[in-house]
Amino acid sequence: xFLTALLVLPALALTGCAGAGAxxxxxxxxxxxxxxIVSNSQMQDAIDLVPEFEKTHPGVRLRFVSLSENQxxxxxxxSVATGGTEFDVVMISNYETPQWASFGWLTDLQPYADKTxxxxxxxxxxxxxxxxxxxxxxxxxxxxxxxSFLAYRKDLFxxxxxxxxxxxxxxxxxxxxxxxxxxxxxxxxxxxxxxxxWGEVMAPLDTVINTFGGSWYNMNWDAQLxxxxxxxxxxxxxxxxxxxGEPGPAVSSxxxxxxLMGQGxxxxxxxxxxxxNALEDPSQSKVVGKIGYVPAPVEKTxxxxxxxxxxxxxxxxxxxxxxxxxxxxWMTSKDYMHLVGTKLGWGHVPPGxxxxxxxxxxxxxxxxxxLQPTLDAMNNADEEHPTAMPVPYTGIQFVSIPEFQDMxxxxxxxxSAAIAGQTSVADALxxxxxYAQTVGDTYKGAAK
Length: 448
What we know:
Helix content: 40-55%
Oligomer: single chain
Distance between the termini: 19 Å
Strand order of the largest sheet: 1-3-2-4-11-7
Largest sheet: 6 strands, mixed
């Protein structure tokens, strides 16, 4: 069922490489390592620093295929699932890693990590390392890790006489958004993702569903997408972003919210803890030093932040595994963190991957506003118990089953349509329930 779903997705055509860029050229004895990545600021930093890698690896040239989040997930999944050989390194996450390892699609990286001097895989944050392991072995290594939290404009709150609680509820957040939203001045009360995609709108929305008492399934694998709890959560999210959110929320992704918040057009933004790389960078943000960070809002659960890591893996089909590991180990090493800090600035250091990063004095100083909120959010994320009630799956902003990639995308399209006003929440969830139940039926009677 999973492979069939993958192969019919129209976005998965494997001809051409949108966003591809090559660094250096091939020559006698030189091997080209092709790296499929997600387009974001941290990866651009890595590309900018590649000459440093090539100084010590003259026999390796890197070719990057840089794609948007949805495109990258689709193209990488299609390639790896069908045994494609065009990529030597792929950027995936803690959703794909253990599943793809169990399918035999990925190279076991534990032997490489263990024999590489100074690499120290035990230095990875325990929750991140466990999330990227299968049967105790690493099958991808983290470039950066994240949870989710709420960023808010401290100056706007002070001007309005508002006080952000240390642990806000979603009800409080809505009330703040209503008071701060100002259509006349172009200030949105809050920015939330609305773009279709299981890793786009569904990422923050799933955490809202979880803390409102909803879920994807109950313990019998009965779909719960039109349950009272899930309906209340989706109603809340859709109405919040429609009433007090950014312009055009149905097409807003992480990037759009980062730009709006950085330009001073948003009072609050709930998203990944990695937002700090955009909001605290003076070269792209007008609100540096004006942002406060508090845990993901809750309703019925103690915590609700997600756990996610963009990581790097080597497909089993790569012909350049040793060279690919040379690049992976360079880009996820302790030395790389220092390289980024000294060359590009300590605010550019990839967060949430290594414990040792948080011991660097220069980084601790640069990250003072968000260092502890980020670590707290990641340490409190619980993939094993993501919801208010027991569920038969793991995962916070996703369900750890192969079918979720297709199912989550289909559901996200319904939610985005509701945000756009093209359908009602009730009708969107009615259709979503059908998709989810079809998948749930295949798991009925199976062991957890």
